[in-house]
Amino acid sequence: MTETFRHSGEYHQQQSSAPVPPGGTQGAYAQGAFPPPPAHAPEAPQEPAPARRRRAKGPVALLAAVAIAAAAVGGGTAYAVQTLTGKDGGSSATSTDVVPTSKKGTVAGVAEAVSPSIVEISASTAEGKSTGSGVITRSDGEIVTNNHVIAGATAIKVRTNDGKTYDAEVVGTDSKKDLALIQLKDASGLKPATLGNSDNVKVGDEVVAIGSPEGLTGTVTSGIISALDRDVTVATGDGQQQPQNPEGGWPFEFDGRQFNGDTGSSKTTYKALQTDASLNPGNSGGALIDMNGNIIGINSAMYSPGSSDQGSEQTASGSIGLGFAIPVDAVKDDLGKLRSGSKT
């Protein structure tokens, strides 16, 4: 289904031109005036000692300190990013400004910058076909999505934003976090998304969601972060038989209420970002994005009333403004495990 550099001024020391007071002697001259000429010839002038450089204060000093600090930790930062994203030079970067300055802070700017990094996933299972979304994490076709999108899949096809279709295989899964990593076959030159920092997210922050709800590839919605650390319970998708919603919706529940179906006995709970950006079945595995174009979450669930007024018959309700995303920090923490091929 889910940001002056001020040049330091030069100064010139001026010598006083105050005259020698009338009637004054050679040894008595006004403060700041030139003394009388010496009685003997002056020695040959020597090279003046280099002026002592004044230590910059304020913003200039701070900028210099920051630059030095950045240089000192550059190697460690590079190592950390490489460890996170893998050896591929086209891996996703850490938080930055992805949206061009002229379009910064606009939904259109975010959509234009990030849509090429979001894909549609079609998984064939013994029960039929399901559609979800995914986020490109490396230019060679590594994609992170929800585990429930590909659970039990016998075949996986992925369509990129430019309409190309690829076969894919599962690399690793983590049903407890509802995360999975898949790899496209014979892919290159794709645009990886930029993974942000979900710890910096605040209630009220504007966000954009991109995914393929109901198979509508590249759908863009927007809203805000409406809550943090929501306990969301979802089916683990570990291959056990789950009761199916006849309308084909995803089985989720939250706070004892159902998400388009019954999760059965095999389920897991995690802390999620809550958003009022519209999410519908098929948004799962897609991106929740800040206004700088950084991925801050993987959309995973939507809340929908589970029964009609007439009884227990399931209704196929759409988004009512309660969507949930796995924080991207949890995703980054899990990437190493998923890349190692772990399937839990």
Could you characterize the architecture of this molecule?
It is a single chain. This protein has 344 residues and is an alpha+beta fold. The chain has four helices and 14 strands. The chain has helices spanning 59-85, 107-114, 147-150, 328-339, and strands at 118-125, 128-136, 142-145, 155-159, 165-174, 179-184, 206-211, 219-235, 252-254, 257-259, 267-275, 287-290, 295-302, 323-327. The strands form two sheets. A six-stranded antiparallel barrel has the order 1-2-3-6-5-4. The longest helix has 27 residues, at 59-85. It is globular and about 45 Å long. It starts with 58 loop residues before the first helix and ends in a 5-residue tail after the last helix. The model is unreliable at 1-18, 23-33, 55-89, 238-264 and 307-315 (pLDDT under 50).
Q: What is the CATH T-level topology?
A: Thrombin, subunit H
What is the strand arrangement across the widest sheet?
A: 1-2-3-6-5-4
Order of helices and strands: HHEEEHEEEEEEEEEEEH
**Low-pLDDT windows of residues:** 1-18, 23-33, 55-89, 238-264, 307-315
Estimate the global geometry from the Cα principal axes.
globular
Radius of gyration (Å): 31 Å
Distance between the termini: 21 Å
The portion of residues forming beta strands comes to 25-35%
* Total helical segments: 4
The total of beta strands comes to 14
CATH class: Mainly Beta
Q: Number of folding domains?
A: 1
Biggest sheet layout: 6 strands, antiparallel, barrel
| CATH 2nd-level architecture | Beta Barrel
Backbone structural class: alpha+beta
Helix content: 10-25%
Overall residue-averaged pLDDT value? 73
